[in-house]
Amino acid sequence: MAGIKDVAQEAGVSVSTVSYVLSGKRSISAKTTDKVMAAVERLGYTPDASARKMRGMRNHIFALSAPIRGDINQAKYNAYFLQTAWQAKNRGYDVLLLTGEDAVADIRRVTQSNLVDGVVLLDIEEHDERTAQAGSYSKPCVAIGYPAEHEGCACVDIDFATAGRMAVDCLYSKGHRSAMFLRDNETDCDRGSGYVLLFRKALLERAEELGMTIHESFKHRDDRFDAVEFVRELCSLDERPTAIVNQANANVLKLVLQQLQASGLRVPDDISVLSCGTYFEGELMPQPITEMPVMPQELCSKAVDLLVDAIDERRDIKGLVELSAPVMHSRGSVTKVGDV
Amino acid sequence: MAGIKDVAQEAGVSVSTVSYVLSGKRSISAKTTDKVMAAVERLGYTPDASARKMRGMRNHIFALSAPIRGDINQAKYNAYFLQTAWQAKNRGYDVLLLTGEDAVADIRRVTQSNLVDGVVLLDIEEHDERTAQAGSYSKPCVAIGYPAEHEGCACVDIDFATAGRMAVDCLYSKGHRSAMFLRDNETDCDRGSGYVLLFRKALLERAEELGMTIHESFKHRDDRFDAVEFVRELCSLDERPTAIVNQANANVLKLVLQQLQASGLRVPDDISVLSCGTYFEGELMPQPITEMPVMPQELCSKAVDLLVDAIDERRDIKGLVELSAPVMHSRGSVTKVGDV
DNA sequence: TTGTAAGCGTTATCAT
DNA sequence: ATGATAACGCTTACAA
Fold this sequence. Notes:
Two copies of one chain form a homodimer. The first copy, chain A, is an alpha/beta fold and 340 residues long. The first copy, chain A, is built from 13 helices and 13 strands. At the A-B interface, α4, α5, β2, α6 and β9 of A face α4, α5, β2, α6 and β9 of B. Chains A, B: This is Catabolite control protein A. Chains A, B: InterPro entries: Cro/C1-type_HTH, HTH_LacI, LacI/GalR-like_sensor, Lambda_DNA-bd_dom_sf, Peripla_BP_I.
């Protein structure tokens, strides 16, 4: 591998001249510049990343922590991986993927050894060890999610409390007085994903305020969702709910939509469907579903911007919380009901 | 940040002693070891990754190239990301994610600057610039896939040619003489994903040999698969095919299965379904489907092993090709037909 | 068993 | 406008 010394020799100049030509940090004569660039070209010289960083320069790498937890289907994080990597590249950073089970240990290892300049946290739980320890990391840290303990890092998330209220308000204003709340299997809740809890709390509270009824239902058999049972319960309720608020994934919702059709219930004529905190972009739904989606692109973009700011501008982002307003994408699956 | 000098001072020994205690490369008295370890603990010392690598040591990072191509649904690569990261960690390596559109440029950048010790290539096309250029990378490289040009790197893949023949043999031996070939929308084919081409070629050739009829069908409207039209065509054929060979993704197959049911065709009584090169583990299929799956775990494991071997043992893996035998997972969706 | 010092490839501070 | 050189934090050959 050709080093800066080889280039200097090839060009007949000193190493510092080569360095300055490449960095542009001082004025160099056109002739010298040409000689050096030619030599660089000829030798295929690329500066060594480690040596460069030894001089106190940035590494231009940050860690992306997405611990693999056996029970969870991780497919939904793919969009976050790609968006983070993409945004990082836009800002001149590479992404080091950390998927080990002991996430805190991994983060400590890569931050303390100066392998990375910062950390992005994915798949945040309500009580997340990674954010709880963030204050002790030697590099800035941004969480995509909104955990209870977040003094040591910045947080970026959708405002799920508002989303919960918006969901109720949307339905209530269209005359709905009773709705089913459809969630994924309980794993996520047990783990305590913050957004699920927040959304549910706000949903129930706002419904209470307005005097709207929310039926919670968990129909899972052998870890699989039972759509037939769900629809059966829906139909058997005294005052049949006129809407479904969905927070489950695409597969579960598809099963429900199918079963509704099989039961002769048309969407939205017989029942409205509103999906929240989901991401059906590109998913093949039987019909378009009105949605307040999560926004991987927006969240990742914000997170990366914040982190790069903290790194490059030495900005202190500890404890910062940025919640994005939920956005309602009307796709016709929610309609008015009654005499409203 | 505490450095090795601080530790040496704190422990009252020389820097080299600290280094040797940590590396275990020479025998140190128990007393000294204790003193040093205590100091390391007290100061929370972690060696600097760059400085370490400057001394010719490995970086213990490799690049994972998965270029974002606008038209493709990247969700299917998630399993490969995670498996690669997981296997890498088992072998003591971290993974740097490269998703830039100009993949070759990214790879050159990280290999030439010694940021990574090796490269793993994902989502390989039949004619892939990344493998075509692999010979000129300054680090070893493994492709998960089997492209035309692969002199400069190692390749790890399922043996899709054999899979194609196995699919035909399986159906033929059960009395099937005519089948529909169901593929994803044509994007993958146009791009020329190697495995799709290989599988199709072998499938058609073997069918020809045995005198079996394969109907190819592309029913896509507005970039969406039209299951209704597909089943209509299936039923309208003179000698109605008794089997479907599927290579499309879970969503497309689900639509077809649904439509078959709607048309009164039962699987496998009225029509057999065999899926190849897919990965339905954990997907919610209406019913279990006999499958020759792709095997992310096995492929990634092999790829990582190969790469780590090349890095740590300086083994030359250029041009190496390792094809895994396809495995048939019988799940009851293929049955005998006629008087066999 | 332990210490001293050279050197890895850069960048930045001097000097010229 | 350019060159010589110290320094970054570590590993290891050589000395004691």
